[in-house]
């Protein structure tokens, strides 16, 4: 029932969200098709809701009907109202879309409605052209005018100014339209008509009509459109021409990589247009539902596209994919790709997955205008787009890869000028010319839609050769992506071995149920095989090689025939296959490659569903570097490495293929049983299996294990050793270890003849040379190793030049130059520079090179054969006896490129030095102009990265790294802190210094810098003849080298500019700042004025009284006010004096200020006639932020007896107008210490964590709290005549169980408490921890207990004394004045008083009676439930503190006697323990969970700071007597929040909680 109601609620929210989304829809989307689709979806939802509601009504019971909110709140009526409102809105919007437009005010009037009124002519004065003439009032005065009024619906007709007819305007005049464009323009110009609306009395600039040209959308009439206009629409440049026949011609040029096509499309004015094939499709959203989109089917597009709006509407996930899209005459970029599932609106069983590039906009509305057409010549059919004739937005463009999958048999063709119909999976699509359009539309159109696109992924970007930040010298990454980690875990979990030791692996799919198995891969594989078969028939030699390979697969059991009963198995993938021929191979000339990347009709392939896995082997460059360290080297490769690994029987059907030996036979089905070349995971599975073999069986073979893990590059082994004996051992171990996994090594070779002879005894063939390669592409320039000379050599294989020599062919040849180590970098850099020159030339990929570039390329290409003479020793001279291995790097830059080269300097035991080239890297200088010093710095960065890479590979310590450059500026930059330089320099200097220290850089002259060869480039024929390049400068071979680290002159080049800010401050008059009260200020100024008056020579002797008069004080205030205003309102006073008013932008504008007779600035205001004093009419203006203003406010605060802001403002307004007075007075009140003292607010910090004693299960009263209650009156004895004395109640409460123990105490002394503590311990057991407040009796008792334990002479009972002597009682005091820290015992005191007051009343009891009563109260308190009492009778008895003391509540209703009952087999002690454990379990689950919530003090407040001045709140003292203190220490709790601080008050240091402190605002 609940699930159905939840479904109803979900349906309501879906309808509500759909309504909200519809209101947000853009106007261009609100078409009739869209709204009708919305209505259909809404009707379906309402029908589903109704059915579910009827089912609920039939199933619900009467009780549920009365209780469920679904029926009580009448959810059905609520949904019905929503449905009605939403559908009403949809129908209203649909009516607007289909409504016929009404006639505008420009619609012509009939002859009966026209009124012609002849008015007398008004003669206007002529204008001679002089502008001053219009200043004459006689001319500008209007003498005549006409006013025309009409009644009812009478309208005025304006005759046509061309043919004088009254039934139309000039814009609708046929005679005017038949004139030529030049005649029309001349008539409008000579008649002084508006070029936009063709009206009189105004120009086009003053025209108010919003109409525009229908052709170019500019501000002129369509009849005056220019003869030549350029229109850019939809990536197509269209040039339109108008002539007397009104024919619009559009010409577009499409250029791609292979050919050039000219497309001409003509539209005439006979209202014809071309329909493009559109279809409505359902697209799946991110939540699994479907939405209808309008798609355009385009055979001329190599990819599919979708709008950004549609992607957002469907909620699709975008994947980054940079692509360049070439259209007709232009190109654009796409940054994202989405994967979308489409479904036919007529056949829901047909689904297709499409990868679409995301663009902002695809095309304009299609068709261009509405088409009225009757398809009478076609039978009744289901159209893919029922509203194909209505212009609407295109959301999706489906390219040729989708078009070919949806075509079906069926084509209807009508008469000429009518569209054709093609049957597809989406329905029938219409395309072609339409003869007639709507009569209401314009007869001329120049919008051309040409769809021909090509997508090129930006995989090969030529700019990578010269972009500064595109190079990184990095070792293999040590961290794996999540997918790589999953691949590793999958391999470890699924890999097995057969009885012979051969490994069996599974294909690492990304998902458990890969999509590739549900496609049409079988049909594609058969089709591809038939094409391959035709090729083999034409080439008998190729056919024989191909058949031999297939027979070899079958002969070795690497492939098997699929059983007949499994041929039609659905979960299978067929792989197309083709041949790759390499005639230069010594083993297999032909290799069959299986195309696992072939996509099926779902757009997926086997490779797209496989995880590639992490890279497990070293880069080839690093492997060669390590290989050069060995005096004796060994090379070999594994025989058919991939095919030595079995594929699990569960996955072999993913590797099927079709084959037949002859064309007369039937096609047979096979499946591959081994790891297959061509699958994405094959390299990972092969290498990972080699490593797994070492992990499983490699422990007995230490030499082989290390080399298999580190010295293999795919199936090639490049390793070495020190001696022949060690080489023989390596050979033996590697063969033996690999044989355990079914692998075999072949083509062994070595530079040592002795070792090679030993190996030759066991094998038949060995290799003389080794070709180093990365992939299977045939190289023009190949790197080889000659074992006899132990040198590296280059082989050159130049194919013949084939004209024309295009950019594509040149780039292809350059990309084949194989120089991974950079040993011939001086020659290769010239090819890189040539690539940049090609890019700058701007020629197309298939355009022939210009003559100059062509000659340069032919010359360079011809010299490449000279590189065969280049030799480089493999061994760098390193062995175990060598004394030192150093790396020396050199960097240099030129205007064309920059380079870094590294040499190894080896010093053997005899002191002989050997220098060898290790590696080099070059970069072409960027196209953007960069200074030579900056390029030199880029070269230094490249060198630092290269040195780090080589040192990590060869394991050279950092101290043996040395860098050289010939740029003194770079060395100067490195000598200063990076922050000194501009960002470009600072970033690179910082990176260099992070890799190498400054003292590792030295200066080298340009003539000795080998990097100069690589930065400037040399011809290939000169590369061998440069000794500086191969061995570095001669002084590197010196035994004792000198490093040129002399002091270099500093440089200010690229130094960061220092911004110097000059701040001026206008301080107020120093006299004001000296005083803190207005009274002192005015009296000082008054005495100064009196002194000045006495010093002046006056004819009349002036006598002054001994006191200051009121006049003198007023004069002093006036002088202060004028000085203050002169400082803050100087500009306003100046404006008033010279202009009579302030500037409009002044903040005093609204006050209309003026200067009074004394020169004081006052408010003008509007109260001149008010019967109030002049000071209230015109108060004195004062600035807001002035010390004098603050003194005025302070004086007002004092005079109002510390009044509030409102009282102060009322007082101040009687004489002063202070700007922003409200905020200034509030601020002053907040800073007043006196006001703060009496309005102090304390801070309540976040409620802290419970102490350990409260949340730890432990014996009752082992950790307790103690407090006193009282006083109470106790009699000495019963009877009359005995006086009462004060007594007290001592309460002990268990911190864990809240059990209470009460003792009567006769006084508050420490001895009295100790006696009560003895009684408590005697009855409840040892108390290890005791908590209390800071009462004097507690403090004294704690001190005495410590003394007794230390001296071991207590007067207590022996047991307590022994307990205290062994463990003692730890006494904890809560902070002073913080009773909320001891809420547990305060609550116990409150409960005790509750019972005591109600039982005793006014009676006075004796000690025995009060003790008895307290024990009974104790029993009651220990019988209270610890958790909420349940109302269910089946629940157990509530847990109480008594359960932990005696096993049940202390106050209990009498029950039957079970003393004679037999107990179960459990012993009594075991039963007691079980009960106790059960109590503690219930304590944890029922009682402890109550403390999760904070019912008070739930927010954390800002903590006071050390040094803050605070008031210490005392509840029994008035605020005036509260102590002041300074915080000197904060005591943080376990949650790092301060709740207690230490204060210094007078001469004492006290501790208080922050809830008792009020921070004073004196710091401000």
From TrEMBL:
Pfam families: DUF5641, Integrase_H2C2, Peptidase_A17. One of its GO terms (molecular function) is nucleic acid binding. SUPFAM superfamilies: DNA/RNA polymerases (SSF56672), Ribonuclease H-like (SSF53098). GO terms for cellular component: DNA polymerase complex. Residues 1256-1449 form the Integrase catalytic domain. It comes from the Eukaryota. GO terms for biological process: DNA biosynthetic process; DNA integration. PANTHER family: GAG-LIKE PROTEIN, PHD-TYPE DOMAIN-CONTAINING PROTEIN. This is Integrase catalytic domain-containing protein. It comes from Parnassius mnemosyne (clouded apollo). The lineage of its organism: Eukaryota, Metazoa, Ecdysozoa, Arthropoda, Hexapoda.
């Amino acid at each position: 029932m609940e699930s159905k109601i939840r479904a109803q609620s979900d349906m309501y929210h879906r309808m509500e969200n759909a309504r909200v989304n519809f209101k947000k829809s853009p106007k261009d989307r609100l078409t009739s098709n869209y709204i009708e689709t919305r209505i259909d979806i809404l009707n379906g939802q309402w029908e589903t809701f109704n059915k579910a509601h009827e089912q609920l009504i039939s199933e619900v019971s009467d009780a549920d009907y009365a209780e469920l909110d679904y029926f009580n709140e009448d959810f059905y009526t609520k949904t019905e109202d929503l449905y009605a409102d939403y559908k009403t809105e949809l129908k209203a919007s649909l009516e607007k879309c289909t409504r016929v437009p009404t006639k505008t005010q420009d619609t012509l009037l009939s002859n009966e409605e026209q009124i012609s009124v002849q008015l007398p002519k008004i003669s206007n004065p002529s204008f001679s052209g002089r502008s001053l003439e219009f200043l004459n009032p006689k001319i500008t005065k209007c003498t005549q005018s006409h006013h025309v009024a009409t009644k009812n619906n009478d309208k005025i007709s304006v005759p046509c100014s061309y043919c004088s007819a009254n039934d139309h305007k000039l814009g609708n005049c046929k005679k005017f339209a038949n004139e030529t464009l030049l005649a029309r323009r001349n008539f409008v110009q000579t008649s002084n008509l508006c070029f936009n609306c063709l009206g009189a009395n105004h120009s086009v600039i003053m025209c108010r009509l919003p109409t525009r040209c229908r052709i170019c959308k500019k501000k002129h009439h369509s009849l005056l459109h220019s003869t030549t206009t350029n229109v850019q629409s939809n990536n197509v440049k269209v040039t339109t021409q108008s002539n007397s026949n009104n024919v619009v011609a559009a010409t577009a040029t499409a250029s791609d990589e292979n050919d050039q096509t000219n497309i001409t499309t003509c539209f005439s004015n006979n209202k014809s247009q071309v329909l493009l094939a559109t279809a409505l499709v359902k697209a799946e959203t991110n939540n699994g539902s479907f939405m209808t989109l309008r798609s355009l089917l385009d055979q001329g597009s190599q990819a599919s596209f979708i709008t950004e709006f549609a992607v957002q509407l469907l909620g699709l996930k975008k994947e980054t994919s940079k692509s360049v899209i070439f259209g007709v005459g232009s190109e654009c970029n796409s940054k994202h790709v989405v994967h979308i599932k489409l479904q036919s609106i007529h056949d829901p069983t047909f689904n297709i997955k499409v990868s679409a590039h995301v663009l902002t906009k695809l095309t304009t509305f299609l068709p261009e205008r509405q088409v009225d057409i009757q398809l009478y010549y076609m039978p009744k059919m289901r159209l893919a787009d029922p509203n194909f004739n209505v212009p609407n937005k295109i959301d999706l463009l489906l390219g040729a890869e989708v078009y070919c999958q949806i075509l079906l048999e069926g084509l209807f063709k009508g008469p000429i000028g009518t569209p054709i119909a093609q049957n597809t999976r989406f329905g029938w699509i219409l395309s072609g010319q339409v003869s007639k359009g709507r009569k209401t539309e314009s007869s001329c159109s120049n919008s051309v839609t040409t769809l021909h696109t090509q997508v090129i992924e930006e995989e090969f970007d030529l700019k990578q050769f010269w972009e500064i930040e595109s190079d990184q010298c990095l070792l293999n990454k040590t961290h794996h992506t999540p997918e790589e980690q999953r691949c590793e875990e999958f391999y470890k979990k699924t890999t097995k071995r057969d009885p012979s030791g051969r490994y069996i692996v599974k294909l690492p799919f990304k998902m458990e149920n890969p999509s590739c198995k549900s496609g049409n891969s079988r049909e594609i594989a058969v089709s591809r095989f038939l094409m391959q078969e035709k090729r083999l028939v034409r080439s008998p030699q190729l056919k024989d090689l191909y058949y031999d390979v297939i027979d070899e697969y079958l002969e070795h059991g690497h492939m098997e025939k699929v059983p007949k009963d499994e041929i039609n198995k659905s979960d299978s993938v067929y792989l197309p296959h083709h041949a790759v021929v390499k005639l230069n191979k010594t083993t297999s000339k032909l290799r069959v490659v299986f195309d696992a990347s072939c996509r099926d009709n779902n757009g997926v392939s086997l490779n797209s569903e496989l995880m590639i896995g992490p890279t497990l082997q070293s880069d080839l460059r690093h492997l060669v570097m390590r290989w050069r360290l060995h005096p004796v080297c060994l090379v070999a490769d594994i025989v058919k490495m991939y095919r030595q690994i079995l594929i699990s029987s569960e996955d072999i059907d993913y590797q099927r293929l079709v084959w037949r030996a002859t064309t007369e036979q039937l096609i047979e089905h096979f499946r591959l049983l081994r790891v297959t070349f061509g699958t994405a995971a094959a390299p990972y599975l092969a290498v990972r299996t080699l490593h797994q073999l070492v992990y499983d069986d490699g422990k007995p073979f230490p030499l082989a294990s290390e080399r298999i893990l580190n010295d293999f590059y795919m199936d090639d082994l490049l390793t070495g050793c020190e001696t022949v004996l060690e080489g023989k051992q390596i050979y033996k171990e590697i063969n033996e270890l690999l044989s355990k996994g079914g692998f075999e090594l072949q083509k062994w070779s070595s530079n040592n003849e002795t070792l090679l002879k030993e190996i030759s005894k066991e094998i038949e063939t060995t290799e003389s040379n080794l070709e180093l390669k990365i992939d299977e592409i045939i190289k023009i320039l190949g790197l080889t190793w000659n074992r006899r000379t132990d040198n590296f050599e280059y082989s050159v294989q130049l194919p013949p030049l084939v004209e024309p020599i295009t950019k594509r062919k040149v780039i292809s040849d350059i990309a084949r130059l194989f120089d991974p180590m950079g040993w011939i970098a001086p020659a290769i850099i010239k090819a890189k520079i040539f690539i940049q020159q090609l890019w700058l030339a701007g020629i197309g990929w298939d355009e022939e090179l210009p003559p100059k570039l062509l000659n340069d390329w032919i010359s360079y290409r011809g010299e490449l054969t000279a590189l065969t003479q280049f030799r480089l020793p493999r061994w760098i001279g390193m062995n175990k006896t060598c004394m030192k291995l150093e790396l020396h790097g050199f960097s240099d830059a030129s205007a064309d490129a920059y380079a870094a080269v590294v040499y190894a300097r080896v010093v053997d035991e005899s002191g002989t030095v050997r220098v060898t080239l290790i590696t080099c890297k070059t970069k072409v200088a960027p196209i953007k102009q960069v200074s030579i010093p900056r390029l030199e710095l880029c070269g230094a960065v490249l060198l630092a990265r290269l040195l780090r890479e080589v040192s990590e590979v060869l394991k050279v310590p950092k101290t043996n790294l040395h860098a050289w450059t010939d740029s003194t500026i770079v060395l100067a930059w490195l000598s200063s802190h990076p922050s000194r330089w501009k960002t470009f320099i600072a970033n690179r200097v910082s990176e260099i210094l992070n890799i190498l220290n400054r003292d590792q850089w030295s200066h080298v002259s340009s003539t000795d810098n080998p990097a100069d060869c690589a930065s400037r480039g040399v011809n290939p024929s000169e590369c061998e003849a440069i000794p500086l390049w191969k061995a570095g400068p001669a002084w590197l071979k010196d035994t004792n080298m000198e490093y040129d680290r002399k002091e270099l002159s500093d440089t200010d080049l690229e130094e960061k500019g220092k911004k110097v800010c000059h701040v001026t401050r206008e301080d107020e008059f120093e006299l004001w700042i000296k005083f803190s009260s207005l009274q002192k200020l005015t009296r000082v100024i008054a005495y100064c004025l009196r002194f000045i008056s006495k010093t002046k020579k006056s004819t009349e002797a002036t006598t002054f009284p001994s006191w200051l008069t009121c006049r003198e004080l007023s004069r002093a205030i006036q002088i202060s006010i004028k000085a203050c205003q002169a400082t803050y309102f100087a500009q306003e006073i100046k404006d008033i004096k010279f202009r009579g008013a302030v500037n409009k932008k002044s903040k005093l504008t609204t006050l209309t200020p003026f200067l009074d007779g004394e020169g004081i600035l006052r408010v003008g205001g509007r109260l001149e006639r008010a019967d109030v004093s002049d000071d209230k009419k015109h108060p004195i203006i004062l600035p807001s932020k002035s010390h004098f203003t603050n003194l005025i406010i302070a004086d007002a605060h004092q005079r109002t007896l510390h009044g509030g802001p409102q009282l102060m403002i009322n007082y101040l307004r009687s004489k002063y107008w202070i700007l922003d007075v409200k905020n200034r007075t509030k601020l002053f009140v907040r800073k007043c210490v006196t006001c703060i003292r009496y309005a102090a607010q304390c801070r309540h910090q976040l409620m802290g964590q419970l102490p350990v004693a409260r949340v730890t299960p432990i014996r009752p009263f082992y950790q307790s709290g103690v407090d006193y209650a009282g006083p109470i009156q106790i009699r000495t004895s019963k009877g009359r005549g005995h006086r009462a004395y004060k007594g007290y109640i001592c309460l002990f409460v268990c911190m864990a169980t809240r059990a209470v123990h009460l003792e009567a105490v006769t006084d508050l002394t420490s001895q009295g408490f100790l006696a009560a503590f003895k009684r408590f311990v005697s009855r409840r057991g040892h108390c290890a921890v005791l908590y209390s407040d800071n009462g004097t009796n507690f403090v004294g008792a704690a001190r005495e207990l410590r003394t007794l334990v230390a001296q071991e002479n207590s007067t207590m009972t022996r047991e307590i004394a022994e307990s205290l002597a062994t463990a003692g009682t730890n006494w904890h005091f809560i902070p002073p004045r913080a009773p909320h820290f001891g809420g547990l015992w305060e609550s116990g005191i409150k409960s005790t008083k509750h019972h005591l007051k109600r039982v005793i009343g006014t009676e006075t009891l004796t000690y025995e009676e009060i003790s008895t009563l307290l024990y009974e109260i104790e029993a009651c308190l220990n019988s209270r439930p610890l958790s909420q009492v349940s109302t269910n009778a089946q629940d157990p008895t509530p847990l109480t503190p008594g359960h932990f003391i005696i096993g049940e509540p202390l106050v209990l209703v009498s029950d039957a006697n079970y003393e004679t009952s037999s107990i179960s087999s459990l012993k009594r002690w075991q039963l007691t323990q079980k009960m106790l454990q059960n109590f503690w379990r219930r304590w944890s689950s029922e009682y402890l969970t109550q403390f999760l919530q904070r019912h008070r003090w739930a927010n954390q407040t800002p903590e006071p700071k050390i040094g803050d001045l605070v008031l210490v709140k005392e509840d029994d003292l008035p605020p005036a007597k509260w102590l002041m203190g300074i915080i000197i220490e904060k005591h943080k709790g376990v949650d790092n929040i301060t709740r207690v601080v230490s204060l210094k008050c007078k001469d004492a240091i006290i501790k208080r909680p922050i809830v008792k402190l009020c921070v004073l605002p004196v710091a401000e």
